Amino acid sequence: MNKLFVKSLCAILASALSLLVSSYCWSDSSISSQNKTPVVITDIESWHHPVKDVLKKNSVLLSKVELKNNRKYAIFHVKFPYDPQSSVNDALLRKLYVAILDANGWWGYEMQDNEDQITIKVTANKKNKRITVDVIPLGQSSAQ
Amino acid sequence: MSELQTGVPASITIAQAILESGWGKHHIGKANNYFGVKAQTVYGKVVYGSVATGFVDRTTKEHIKKSNTNIFITAHFRSYKNLAGSFLDHGLFLKYNPRYQKALTTYAKNRDADEFARGLQEGGYATDQHYAELLISIMKKHHLYQYNRKVANTIVGVSKP
Q1: pTM of the entire predicted model
Q2: Domains defined along chain B, listed by start
């Protein structure tokens, strides 16, 4: 009886903990679906995540977040206050890519920029501390 | 020549090349890329448009103070046969970029390269608040306005980069 009680208690605690962790990471009231299908977050005001702070600090406007692959892969829909394809802005952009990556737990991500008609895909290897940046014309990205 | 095909004032292109390549010293190794124009990736394959002849990967070190670590960032850049290719492709990048349409349209009417420089700034070409004034000072100092076409362009057909 006691054993069963402890087992149940552990299960309840584990599920509560997992709920707490996931709600911290990707908490939002407008999440439209569950784990296996893509999640779309449009209510950015009530969405809390370190990436949001990084974008805000860099004056990059965030309008939507899509989460794919069991919420492990994020596509941030953004608007840049400057041209993200101009090499003059490269130094600033490199810092931004790294800061987002850091805030995103070193998971690769994409930034979709409708105004400039591009998607910036950042692929990361945390072990080697290496990042690859691909600039993709809008709608011509390989499926993640 | 590139002004004829792109509508971008020659004086602007030369001033930008001076500024961005440090008087021609930096052009991404043997890539002859004087403006750091990037190659794009389409369905996993790197593409480089109709003017460039290939691409090179360039890795830059980014130091993170907070964690005292170095991050290596690789990006794809277009490579050109020569300087002329780089100049033309940069002009085409501006020509087909919606951010600079206002600057191009205005220049086609008033032939004012200084205003074009300010239009680039307005379009977000550079975050440096002094970028336009820097271009203007280079154009003035080196008498680059003489290279601009005096009449409105007859744009020769060149495909989108």
Answers
A1: 0.84
A2: 2-145 (1.10.530.10)
